[in-house]
Design brief:
The complex is a heterodimer of chains A (137) and B (383). Chain A contains one helix and eight strands, in the order αββββββββ. By secondary structure, chain A is mainly β. Chain A has a five-stranded mixed beta barrel with strand order 4-5-6-8-7. Chain A has a three-stranded antiparallel β-sheet with strand order 2-1-3. In chain B, a hairpin with a 4-residue loop joins β10 and β11. In chain B, α3 packs across α13. Chain B starts with a strand and ends with a strand. The chains are: A mainly beta (137), B alpha/beta (383). At the A-B interface, β4, β5 and β6 of A face α4, α5 and β5 of B.
């Protein structure tokens, strides 16, 4: 599976990080770590500009995390109109790793509290597409 | 330090829909910038065109603008950093002159945003985020800044009403600006009643997409003193970046690109925030102006809202900000915006801002941000 199946609308097909989507298919949300200097990356990257090496390993993101910031999007960009309203958010996980995603539709806007515990999990989307989202712990 | 000057500034009227071609829009700004100068287009050594190309039907517009203004065969090229493109262009012009390569450089910014619908525009700007990792979630400029508004509220108790007061101020000054897209006052109630866009931001918390252009004529000291009555000197320049991705951000209560750029500019100019007499800040959203107060050191972190509550950023206050209407109400034609901010400060320092003049303004500041805090430019000007 290539990266073109990632997310509601994907603008990217070819990438060294395409295995991210294979991991999603197996139910795992992964970050990468540079084997040389130990830097951990989310979004995952396969190249370390400090070490000048492309020798990274996949590491699973450890749940739970905490909500850092969010917004209920009422006016969606073209291509996303059917989804609105949806809640975008940044959450922080162990080692200061931050992830940008959406909150699960199960979470009502009035129940969202800054600092609340969340887990990042795989989300299957219509049309055999795949992504990840934040859910209540 | 007085070795590079702004000798001319101009902008077109900012329109919802201009009915003009981009070359004609650029002419309007160029014309105003050259008025009163003992200089013609033959004396311009290079042109730096500034635009966010995602909006342009015309590809590689720098050549077209150069031809229309009859600047060929002089050097011409495009500079882009989304909404801060024209102050990035200014930074390049400063370097071209400081290096001795050129004596006079025109920085021409434009955008014709009416060529796209509002939703298409939101989608294009969404692709100004990381298209691989974040655009697929449906992020846009308003929702990116909304994260900052929400975090600022949660940490400091900032309210939607306080944000709304920024719009009320900027609308008040736009009502005096004949080049503003919305030259009319709005009430706090109107702002509070406007439709939600991305919580906590509502329609009136958001700037106006516009067609428009700006032009800055930059010159070496010898030329500036010869051809211009009141050269305005570039005293300090700062430029910095932060991550494209929101996941890469360390804080959502400040734009680190702005604090870093401001520190550079203050140091270069040898001034402090208290020395600034008048400022133009990048109020693409109401929260952006509050963040700017704090990032520029006009207020301590978390206390920016006090400035607007106490009306300290009105013309008679401690630090007048966006007394031309700002991006919110004057309009935000992406590539033209920084040049328009420069125009306002230059006119203030020359004492020409008849519609809303800050008394005895000698030192002014421009804060121009690209994207959701991806690029930050801060410029300090001195009479």
């Amino acid at each position: 599976m290539g990266f073109e199946t990632f997310g509601k609308v994907s603008f990217t097909a070819e990438t060294r990080a395409a295995a991210f989507v294979d991991h999603l298919a197996q139910g795992k949300v992964m970050a990468t770590r540079c084997k040389s200097c130990g830097a951990t990356y989310f979004p995952p990257k396969m190249d370390c500009p400090t070490c000048l090496k492309s020798d990274t390993e996949w590491v699973e993101v450890k749940n739970p995390g905490k909500l850092v910031a969010y917004s209920v999007v009422g006016y969606a960009p073209a291509g996303f109109e059917d989804d609105a309203p949806y809640i975008i958010a940044v959450s922080e996980f162990s080692d200061g790793l931050r992830i940008f995603s959406r909150l699960s539709k199960d979470i009502k806007a009035e129940d969202v509290k800054p600092g609340m515990n969340l887990k990042v999990v795989v989300a299957k989307l219509p049309g055999d597409r795949i992504s990840y989202e934040f859910q209540k712990v | 330090m007085d070795d590079v000057a702004i000798i001319g500034v101009g902008q077109s009227t900012f329109f919802r829909k201009s009915g003009l071609n981009i070359r004609e829009l650029c002419f309007d700004a160029y014309k105003e910038s050259m008025q009163g100068l003992d200089l013609t287009n033959k004396d311009i050594d290079a042109s730096v065109t500034c635009s966010a190309p995602e909006y342009d039907k015309q590809r590689t517009p720098s050549g077209l603008i150069s031809e229309y203004l009859e600047l060929t065969p002089k050097s011409a090229f495009l500079v882009e950093s989304v909404c801060s493109s024209s102050t990035s262009g200014l930074r390049v012009a400063y370097s071209l002159i400081k290096s001795g390569l050129h004596k006079v450089v025109a920085v021409i910014g434009f955008q014709k945003m009416s060529e796209l619908t509002s939703r298409e525009s939101a989608e294009r700007m969404g692709r100004g985020a990381d298209i691989m990792w974040e655009t697929p979630f449906g992020i846009s400029m308003p929702s990116g800044y909304a994260l900052f508004a929400q975090a600022h509220m949660a940490k400091f108790g900032t309210t939607e009403q306080q944000l709304a007061k920024v719009r009320v101020k900027n609308a008040f000054y736009a009502s005096k600006n004949p080049k503003a897209i919305y030259p009319k006052i709005v009430t706090l109630e109107e702002v509070m009643a406007s439709a939600p866009v991305a919580s906590p931001l509502k329609t009136f918390d958001c700037c106006a997409a516009a067609d428009g252009s700006s032009c800055i004529i930059v010159a070496s000291a010898d030329v500036a003193k010869r051809v211009s009555k009141i050269p305005i000197w570039i005293a300090g320049l700062g430029a910095a970046t932060d991550t494209m991705s929101m996941s890469g951000r360390k804080t959502f209560t400040s734009l680190s690109c702005a604090t870093e750029a401001a520190a550079q500019a203050y140091k270069m100019a040898g001034v402090t925030p208290q020395d600034i007499d008048v400022a133009e800040v990048h109020d693409c959203f109401t929260i952006s102006e509050i963040l700017a107060y704090e990032d520029l050191g006009f207020a301590k972190p978390g206390e920016g809202t006090r400035l607007i509550e106490e009306k300290q950023t009105y013309i008679d206050g401690k630090i007048p900000v966006n007394v031309d209407g700002g991006l919110l109400c004057k309009g935000h034609p992406i590539g033209a915006t920084g040049g328009s901010q420069m125009r306002t400060i230059v006119r203030q320092l020359r004492g020409e801002a008849v519609e809303a003049q800050v008394k005895n303004a000698e030192i002014g500041l421009v804060h121009n941000i690209g994207g959701v805090g991806q690029y930050g430019n801060v410029i300090i000007l001195r009479r």
